[in-house]
Amino acid sequence: MTGKSRGVVLIIEKTPRRRWDKRDEYTSVCERCELKAYRRPDPYSRRWFTEWTREADGFYAHNYNGGKTPPCDPIAVEVRDEEV
Ligand SMILES: [Zn+2]
Fold this sequence. Notes:
Helix content is 0%, strand content 45%. The strands form two sheets. Strands 2-3-4-5-6 form a five-stranded antiparallel β-sheet, with no helix packed on it. A two-stranded antiparallel ribbon has the order 1-7. Strand 5 (48-54) and strand 6 (59-62) form a beta hairpin. It is mainly beta. 5% of the residues are buried. The structure holds zinc ion. The site of zinc ion has 7 residues, from loops.
């Protein structure tokens, strides 16, 4: 650290750890951002895929086509150093 203490520093942790709260065999909810993950059987073949939804912002994603798990909300910590 340089010791400078003016301005705003925005620290973003890009890959926060999820905290999955397992609700049942197929459903988990991230305690951090309330993203819900549903494991669902593919109706057309013998495999499973996952749907992710979040009511707060209407987020929807799935990995039916092999997509990645969406990232958890980044944690943004604003550190404001004000003059004393
Ligand atoms: Zn999350």
